[in-house]
Amino acid sequence: QVQLVESGGGLVQAGGSLRLSCAASGAPLNNYAMGWFRQAPGKEREFVATISRSGWSTDYADSVKGRITISRDNAKNAVYLQMNSLKPEDTAVYYCAAKYFRSPMSTMIAGALYDYWGQGTQVTVSS
Known about the structure:
With 127 residues, this protein is an all-beta fold.
């Protein structure tokens, strides 16, 4: 069982930056590909970014490419989401998720296939 706790959300002006963290406990995070998803009010949950177990492979939603970077520190059992040039449309609750993979290179875009989820952290971008 993996427990995930997100932190780092908050209120920021458009153009600003935030760094979200996801701390894991209960199992070594290096067995899992990780993903970040978000859900805005009244909208479906959407994929933001994913990173493989090794950290060598990443993938991003088109809407965040060039502005957001996912990274991980397996020694600290943590995953991060660095968000720059934030826009009001980035406002959402951000969730991290873990997907078990044998391959160190696999990533996962489909949220339904993740094994564990955190409770989320609110990000609000004001215009």
